[in-house]
């Protein structure tokens, strides 16, 4: 039988492959595994605005509460915000309901540990094993049942954190944001406007159905046109849950993730601020990146496909790009 968890959580066509019943069982099993030994355990949950998010959020939260764990629901929030706030509020885990850049009919469920990082494979395997034994999971009763709390204003803490962490102001820069009708429609413009940029926003009216629909990181045509029309210096297209972005320059030319890594790494290396003179990327990054870095005396460390493997290697080695 195929493993339930893929490279980025559990995904499938919403309401069929990824059904409310599966979400309920996944919620209960994950709460059982992730609550640790806390008597007052809590899990933070966010989602993107796709229409199936409501039913999956309700089912997942019900499963979690049935084990006696409280759920804090942010509503629509970028994936990085949930990871950040999970650690900040000292939650036992974080959950995001999203299928990232996938079409609207798909959805997914992914987890973060108490430290705000993706779960290791062995914890995912334990959750899957508990799901198979769902009928025998010990349920809470009476006052022991978990509660649900709506905490959308927690996102303001994430926005403030990003603004305060950025070392430069963006005054004088015209920037176009394509929010993919997704999770960054609220936070994205706030952040860049607060940093001083002159921000123009497109695809920022989510209706539950138009997420990633000919917009966002997979579809750059509208962003290119908007950058050229506005005379902007750059454009940025997010995916549905806001954990990736593709840039375009002032001429509408795409600047993908490999190019961004090369730009950042070479800049830091020339300033003597690139630890170990190395960059971490997956096996999917192209050879052009490796060649460009090698010319600057920078090595490329490759990992399996999946951002958690990149993150794990960066934490292990102290590499920062």
Kindly describe this structure:
This protein folds into three domains: 10-154, Alpha-D-Glucose-1,6-Bisphosphate, subunit A, domain 3 (Alpha-D-Glucose-1,6-Bisphosphate, Chain A, domain 3); 166-255, Alpha-D-Glucose-1,6-Bisphosphate, subunit A, domain 3 (Alpha-D-Glucose-1,6-Bisphosphate, Chain A, domain 3, 3-Layer(aba) Sandwich); 259-317, Alpha-D-Glucose-1,6-Bisphosphate, subunit A, domain 3 (Alpha-D-Glucose-1,6-Bisphosphate, Chain A, domain 3, 3-Layer(aba) Sandwich), CATH 3.40.120. The chain has ten helices and 13 strands. It has helices at 20-34, 53-66, 79-88, 121-132, 155-165, 187-194, 221-230, 257-270, 287-295, 307-317; strands at 10-13, 42-47, 70-76, 93-97, 106-113, 148-150, 174-178, 198-202, 234-238, 245-248, 254-255, 278-282, 299-303. The strands form three sheets. The chain has a six-stranded mixed β-sheet, sandwiched between helices. β7 (174-178), α6 (187-194) and β8 (198-202) form a beta-alpha-beta unit. α5 packs parallel to α6 and α8 (257-270) packs parallel to α9. The mean pLDDT is 95.
